[in-house]
């Protein structure tokens, strides 16, 4: 729930506001408040527990695409890295068991895209990273329009409790607000 600074309730409301800006209905937002999954940048979560929760959510919502962090967690945040490990564990578990996720009217499988972590230089050169990203291998490259970038910034600003100085820098010059390179897991 984002309760690292005892701001869980505030951060839940900020998440709902941010999702509203992005056009995501509140009914599609699930906040997990689990005592074994504390919001703490130094704590690695149990990948098996998190994988179970992720798989349950995927099945309950009939999700066919998951976008998550890569092994670097974009910012090195232990919780982000744990989420990647859990999703990777989930994918391996599904493949090993030979299972497929059922959609409402047809069988399909859930695909997973992981967001590429880049070095500090590339992270903060904004749209200039398009040139580099176009030359490097990836499975998907999303380049946002100016309108989409402004919408993403409005959504980020909803997270007022988290807008520390380095996140202000992020809003000004992060390549993640302009483009995102992803690969299939």
UniProtKB/TrEMBL annotation:
Which Enzyme Commission numbers does its entry carry?
A: 3.5.1.89
The species this protein belongs to is Setophaga kirtlandii (Kirtland's warbler)
Alphabetical list of Gene3D superfamilies matching this protein: LmbE-like (3.40.50.10320)
What does the record list as GO biological process? GPI anchor biosynthetic process
Superkingdom assignment:
Eukaryota
Q: What Pfam families does the annotation carry?
A: PIG-L
SUPFAM superfamilies in UniProt? LmbE-like (SSF102588)
Q: What lineage is this protein's organism placed in?
A: Eukaryota, Metazoa, Chordata, Craniata, Vertebrata
GO function term, MF aspect, one: N-acetylglucosaminylphosphatidylinositol deacetylase activity
Residues folding into a coiled coil are none
> Per the similarity annotation, which family is this?
Belongs to the PIGL family.
GO terms under cellular component: endoplasmic reticulum; membrane
**Name listed for the protein in its UniProt record:** N-acetylglucosaminylphosphatidylinositol deacetylase
* InterPro entries the UniProt entry points to: GlcNAc_PI_deacetylase-related, LmbE-like_dom_sf
């Amino acid at each position: 729930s984002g309760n690292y600074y005892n701001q869980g309730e505030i951060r839940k409301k900020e998440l709902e506001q941010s999702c509203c800006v992005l056009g995501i209905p509140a009914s599609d937002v699930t906040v997990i408040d689990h005592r074994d999954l504390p919001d703490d940048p130094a704590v690695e979560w149990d990948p098996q527990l998190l994988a179970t929760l992720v798989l349950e959510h995927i099945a309950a919502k009939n999700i066919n695409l998951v976008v998550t962090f890569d092994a670097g967690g974009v910012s090195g945040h232990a919780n982000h890295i744990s989420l990647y490990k859990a999703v990777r564990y989930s994918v391996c578990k599904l493949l090993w068991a030979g299972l497929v996720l059922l959609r409402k009217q047809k069988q399909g499988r859930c695909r997973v895209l992981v967001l590429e972590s880049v070095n500090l230089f590339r992270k903060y050169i904004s749209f200039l990273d398009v040139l580099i990203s176009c030359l490097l291998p990836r499975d998907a490259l999303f380049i946002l329009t100016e309108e989409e970038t402004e919408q993403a910034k409005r959504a980020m600003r909803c997270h007022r409790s988290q807008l520390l100085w380095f996140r202000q820098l992020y809003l000004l010059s992060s390549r993640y607000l302009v483009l995102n390179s992803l690969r299939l897991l």
